């Protein structure tokens, strides 16, 4: 009995936490240095573009280098297609069992390609690739430790959460993103993987920062928020409606670009990279605020609660409003092009930057309508969260993200109001969440065909499923338990139904083959000999024997 309880405790908690800690350590180191490199390269690229702007003779050379770079990145994507795009959809696909990662191949490829795109001046963020790198780390750790495919999916999820948490210094955002976006449900095992990986990764990052003498601060510090009175919520609703509709426009534009770029097939599709790379050169020569992920732009539109003017540098000596409009249009086009062409660069922070830039414009408009200028920073953050929600459809992530990125709770209620409006607008237009739609598009483009299969099997004793509710198990993606037969009687399954040994279940899922469905279900309903557990058990048995002697 004790052995069974010990094995159950090991399988359902200790093993997941232990592997999660290993994943977190690796993610903490790799993603920390990746983001340090991203910050350095982004700043270097901006200085380089400023230097070229002052020396126009180098402009032709710039575009030659960008054209060659486009072909280089396109060729890399051709050989490693998994790195196409921001990486978040592919990570979610791998965590759901729909895609397979070759972690040793995709991890260095994504890191190198995304950093090079930042160097070239594209509107590229580090957060999406950070999640991808984290997911690849989780996949690699699980493979090296001999984990099952189910355990690998857990660790991919935990690693991805840790990658996002390290990139943003936002642990709760990373954990919530796992439930709301990656799997769209809560299970104890997902929580164990997520929190153990996230906490370990952040502790590792903080230790590394301490050794390097770097301070740990909030992501955005140029904002000061004042509590908004109830009467000012009309401005919040107004700003949220505009931001939500703008998010819908961005969503439509991004997939229009994806459709147009898919028609460019010359040289195995590598030619399609030319357009976003050359456009990045034009944009970079016009304004550095349309380059990189967007941290600088978000900080620049902060007004310290209205006590200071926005620090956005003028474009062509234009007034601040015209400058913001130009930056918004350039960023909108460049981010949509990156999405459409599948440039290996994150769109997470670029989307936040679009929302913040739009919020700065709306705050100016609200000021003309009578709103006190001290609420300008609140409107910027509300628009940022609302825009993200309308596109990604992850409202809880948006709310928690604003709190963690600013380290302030002052505008929590207005943000909840804005996010709710953004989510409702997205529902009215019946949009799929952006990353889900991108995952489907990725699978279509790479000819990953899903078919519906059914599999009848029996829950056995000592399996993970025995005694567990259906909702608490990480089934393969798209799976439904259609029926349960227990002692000759049929049971209508629900998420709360607890499976017992001897239950005959009919599982149905859309997957690439019946064998994959059978393998994924058998890992859950049949006992599995865990080699790592046996090794640990033997080690402790040997230690006890040595102690007795």
Task: Summarize the topology.
Layout: H1 2-54, H2 59-79, H3 88-95, H4 103-119, H5 127-144, H6 149-168, H7 171-182, H8 188-212, H9 233-261, H10 274-286, H11 295-300, H12 320-341, H13 348-368, H14 376-392, H15 395-406, H16 412-428, H17 434-445, E1 451-458, E2 480-486, E3 489-491, E4 504-511, H18 514-525, H19 531-548
Antiparallel strand pairs: 1-4, 2-3, 2-4
Characterise the protein shown here.
The chain has about 550 residues and is mainly α. It contains 19 helices and four strands. It has a four-stranded antiparallel β-sheet, covered by helices on one side. A hairpin with a 2-residue loop joins strand 2 (about 480-485) and strand 3 (about 490). Helix 1 crosses helix 6, helix 10 (about 275-285) packs antiparallel against helix 12 and helix 12 packs antiparallel against helix 13. The longest helix is centred in the N-terminal third of the chain and has 53 residues, at about 1-55. It is globular and about 80 Å long.
């Amino acid at each position: 009995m004790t052995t069974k309880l010990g094995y159950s405790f090991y399988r359902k908690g200790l093993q997941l936490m232990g592997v999660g800690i290993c994943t977190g350590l690796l993610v903490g180191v790799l993603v920390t240095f990746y983001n340090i490199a991203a910050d350095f390269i982004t700043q270097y690229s901006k200085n380089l573009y400023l230097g070229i702007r002052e020396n126009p003779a180098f402009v032709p050379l710039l575009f030659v280098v960008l054209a060659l770079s486009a072909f280089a990145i396109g060729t890399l994507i051709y050989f490693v297609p998994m790195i196409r795009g921001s990486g978040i959809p592919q990570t979610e696909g791998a965590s759901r069992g729909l895609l397979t990662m070759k972690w040793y191949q995709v991890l260095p490829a994504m890191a190198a390609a995304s950093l090079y795109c930042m160097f070239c001046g594209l509107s590229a963020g580090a957060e999406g690739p950070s999640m991808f790198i984290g997911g690849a780390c989780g996949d690699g750790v699980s493979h090296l430790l001999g984990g099952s495919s189910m355990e690998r999916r857990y660790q991919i999820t935990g690693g991805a959460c840790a990658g996002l948490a390290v990139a943003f210094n936002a642990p709760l955002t990373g954990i919530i993103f796992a439930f709301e976006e990656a799997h769209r449900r809560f299970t104890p095992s997902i929580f164990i993987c997520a929190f153990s990986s996230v906490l370990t990764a952040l502790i590792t990052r903080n230790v590394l920062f301490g050794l390097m003498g770097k301070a740990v601060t909030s992501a955005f510090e140029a904002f000061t928020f004042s509590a908004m009175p109830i009467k000012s919520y009309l401005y919040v609703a107004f700003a949220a409606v505009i931001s939500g509709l703008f998010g819908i426009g961005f969503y439509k534009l991004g997939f229009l670009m994806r459709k147009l770029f898919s028609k460019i097939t010359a040289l195995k599709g590598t030619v399609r990279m030319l357009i976003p790379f050359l456009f990045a050169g034009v944009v970079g020569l016009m304004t550095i605020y349309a380059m990189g992920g967007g941290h600088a732009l978000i900080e620049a539109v902060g007004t310290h609660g209205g006590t200071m003017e926005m620090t956005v540098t003028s474009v062509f000596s234009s007034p601040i409003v015209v400058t913001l409009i130009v930056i918004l249009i350039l960023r909108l086009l460049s981010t949509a092009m990156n999405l459409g062409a599948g440039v290996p660069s994150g769109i997470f922070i670029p989307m936040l930057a679009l929302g913040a830039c739009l919020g700065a414009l709306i705050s100016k408009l609200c000021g003309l309508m009578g709103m006190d200028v001290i609420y300008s920073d609140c409107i910027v953050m509300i628009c940022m969260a609302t825009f993200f929600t309308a596109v990604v459809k992850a409202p809880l992530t948006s709310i928690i993200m604003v709190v963690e990125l600013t380290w302030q709770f002052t505008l929590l209620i207005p943000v909840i109001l804005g996010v709710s409006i953004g989510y409702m607008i997205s529902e009215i237009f019946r949009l799929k969440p952006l990353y889900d739609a991108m995952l489907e598009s990725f699978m279509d483009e790479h000819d990953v065909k899903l078919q519906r299969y059914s599999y009848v099997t029996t829950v056995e004793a000592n399996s993970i499923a025995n005694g567990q509710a259906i909702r608490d198990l990480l089934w393969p993606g798209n799976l439904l338990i259609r029926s349960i037969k227990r002692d000759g009687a049929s049971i209508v399954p629900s998420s709360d139904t607890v499976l017992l040994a001897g239950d005959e279940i009919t599982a149905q899922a859309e997957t690439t083959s019946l064998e994959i469905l059978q393998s994924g279900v058998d890992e859950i309903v049949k006992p599995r000999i865990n080699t790592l557990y046996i090794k640990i058990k033997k080690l402790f048995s040997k230690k006890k024997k040595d102690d007795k002697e």
